[in-house]
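Reminder to self: tokens first, then the designed residues, so the page reads top to bottom the way the pipeline ran.
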């Protein structure tokens, strides 16, 4: 638009301009002048807002600041005021969602809350968890490396270029639910399925799924959001021992911070133990039932140490 105006003001003929811009007509000039006087078209202003807001996000990341939606909204509105776009732009929740999806910004959710009594013991808990992690890291080389996917959401890996499906992890009856006063009781009695509970159900009925780890499921199965179940893939490579197919998507289990206690150890077990049919199955090892997931992890660690000593 600006280039066309410059050519017209320089005396370039309409035919010459149309040779470069076939859609151009002389009556467009007045409209172009008006748009430029107002700071550009709506699309150019939206592009300006997006680029400016993303640059602010990158600055926040480089300074290791915690990023919130209200910060993105504030930066976008400030930019809209500067370029005169407030008449049509409001930085709505829908725009923020699309903005984050466009630039690959992933939201983190609060999975647990701590009270004062728990905070008083947080150093002892953190010390115990650090000790466990340090001891466990030395044993990682004895485990096969797995391609490890939240819910029905997915994103594209910046390293491999493949689609990464994210599957949820939560303690028993610890999934997030949404309810209204009139249906609170029915939701509490029958909470909605998650990818984790659907994985347990799949292991009960599908012999091939029993050979897989939780994070490998999206490679061979698709998540049906309507029925909240896993179904075999019908397009892709043939799989030995199964009538389903394998595709390129890889899995990622939601990350859990060590300070989240049992959920952290549950995630560790899901990445190492195949064929769980319910939460209690992950608390057992060699016929011995543990009280916590941490105890189960320690039992597995001791068994691995025993095997390595005998090698």
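Designed residues (311 positions):
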């Amino acid at each position: 638009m600006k280039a066309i105006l410059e050519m017209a003001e320089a005396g370039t003929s309409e035919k010459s301009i149309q040779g470069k811009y076939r859609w151009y007509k002389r009556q467009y000039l007045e409209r172009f002048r008006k748009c430029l006087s107002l700071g550009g078209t709506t699309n150019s202003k939206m592009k300006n807002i997006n680029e400016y807001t993303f640059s602010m996000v990158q600055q926040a990341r480089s300074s290791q600041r915690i990023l919130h939606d209200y910060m993105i909204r504030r930066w976008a509105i400030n930019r809209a005021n500067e370029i005169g776009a407030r008449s049509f732009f409001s930085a709505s929740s829908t725009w923020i969602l699309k903005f984050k999806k466009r630039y690959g910004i992933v939201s983190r959710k609060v999975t647990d809350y701590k009270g004062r009594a728990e905070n008083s013991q947080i150093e002892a808990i953190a010390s115990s968890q650090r000790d466990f992690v340090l001891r466990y890291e030395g044993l990682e080389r004895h485990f096969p490396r797995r391609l490890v996917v939240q819910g029905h959401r997915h994103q594209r890996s910046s390293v491999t270029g493949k689609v990464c499906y994210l599957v949820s992890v939560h303690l028993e009856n610890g999934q997030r639910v949404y309810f209204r006063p009139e249906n609170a009781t029915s939701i509490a009695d029958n909470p909605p399925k998650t990818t984790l509970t659907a994985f347990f159900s799949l292991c009960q009925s599908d012999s091939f799924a029993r050979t897989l780890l939780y994070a490998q499921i999206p490679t061979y199965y698709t998540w049906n959001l309507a029925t909240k179940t896993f179904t075999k893939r019908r397009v892709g490579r043939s799989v030995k021992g199964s009538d389903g197919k394998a595709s390129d998507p890889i899995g990622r289990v939601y990350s859990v911070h060590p300070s989240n206690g049992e959920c952290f150890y549950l995630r560790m077990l899901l990445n190492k133990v195949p064929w769980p049919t319910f939460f209690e199955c992950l608390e057992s090892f060699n016929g011995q039932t543990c009280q916590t997931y941490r105890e189960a992890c320690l039992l597995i660690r001791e068994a691995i140490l025993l095997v390595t000593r005998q090698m």
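The chain has three domains: 1-37, 45-103, 127-310.
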